[in-house]
Design brief:
338 residues, alpha+beta, Helix Hairpins, Heat Shock Protein 90, 3 domains, 5-stranded antiparallel sheet, 10 helices, 13 strands
Length: 338
């Protein structure tokens, strides 16, 4: 067959190719009337395609008013493409859709070619996420008030008792209250945390790490920060939160006198300790909410770390230091020279 010979693209062949796209397709002209719709688009309204041919855009897309169609049309440049999310209505059906509209000219006559994809399931997921966030906010309120207040009262009475009584049992009660305080703090942090991050900017790894170290109870532990001043593009507050949780995890597993090291790799950084490390068969589970390998751990800290990593579009992996100890390596990080 001569590769230079013209191919006869029959209407049937073109229709088959359009259907293979798997989304709705609609074409309309300068008067705003559909001259072509495919079966996938018509199926959204449970009508045959020919029923939609000749209908105006504003009959199906109320967001575009008939009186404003001319200005909408004139605002397009040839070959310009626009995306939008809207609702198409016809035959007593309302369908949320994502559209991609391109203006193309054929033999000097402009047309709008649009693909239409139903997004009902995505909208439903978004509504469910919103409801979950509302429930989490309610839970956070309970944690911060209804649980924190009686804990503070109990701690206050314990302090009064200690002025008159010296017994080991009071120390055990104090330890239990401290444990409850950590649980409440991390539950609140987890409830208020999500995979979103705020504004990102170049931040200093050593500076953020030192600030995080000061917020963690590490009187005997030692932090080894990287040489120089490597800077990464990140949400500074969330990065500090990440370091704080990794530091607490290191002290919990490696001991109060742990040596914790932060350093950079080619596309990220790591936080490592000199403890016993994490067995390979447990490394995949450490980020599960509530999973912990020590009696002192809550199982929330590393879940928060993973949320922060995800929010930055980074990746995290648990490995082992050459001389033992756990190593949390975060990659996919953008470095900055600013």
């Amino acid at each position: 067959m001569d590769s230079g010979s013209p191919v006869d693209l029959s209407p049937e062949f073109l229709a088959e190719m359009v259907e293979s796209v798997g989304v709705g397709v609609g074409i309309y002209g300068r008067d705003g009337r559909y001259i072509y719709v495919n079966q996938s688009y018509a199926d959204l309204f449970d009508v045959p395609p020919e029923e939609l041919v000749g209908k105006t855009l504003w009959e199906i897309t109320p967001e575009i008013e008939a009186s404003r169609f001319d200005s909408y049309w004139d605002s397009f440049d040839d070959d310009e493409t626009r995306t939008a999310e809207t609702v198409h209505k016809y035959n007593d059906r309302e369908i949320p859709v994502a559209t991609v509209t391109t203006q193309r000219s054929i033999d000097g006559t402009p047309y709008h070619f649009g693909t239409i994809k139903e997004i009902s399931e995505r909208r439903a997921r978004e509504r469910e996420i919103m409801r979950q966030n509302e429930r989490l906010e309610s839970f956070a309120s309970v944690v911060s008030h209804d649980l924190r207040n009686p804990l503070n009262v109990a701690q206050g009475y314990l302090d009064v008792l200690r002025e008159d009584i010296s017994r080991d049992e009071l120390r055990l009660v104090d330890n239990a209250l401290d444990r409850m305080d950590v649980l409440i703090t991390e539950l609140l942090e987890l409830a208020q945390s999500d995979s979103e991050v705020g504004e990102t900017a170049p931040v200093s790894i050593p500076a953020v790490a030192e600030e995080a170290w000061r917020n963690v109870d590490t009187p005997e532990a030692v932090l080894h920060a990287p040489d120089g001043d490597p800077r990464v593009v990140a949400d500074e507050t969330r990065l500090q939160q990440l370091f704080e949780n990794l530091f607490r995890n290191a002290v919990e597993h490696a001991g109060s006198d742990a040596h914790v090291t932060i350093d950079t790799v080619s596309d990220g950084f790591y936080v490592a300790d000199d403890g016993p490390g994490i067995p390979q068969d447990k490394r995949e589970r450490v980020f599960e909410t509530g999973y912990t390998t020590t009696d002192r751990g809550t199982g929330f800290g590393l879940s928060i770390v993973q949320q922060i990593v995800t929010g930055h579009h980074w990746s995290i992996q648990v490995t082992e230091q050459p001389d033992g100890g756990a190593r949390f390596e975060i990659t996919g990080v953008e470095f900055s020279t600013e």
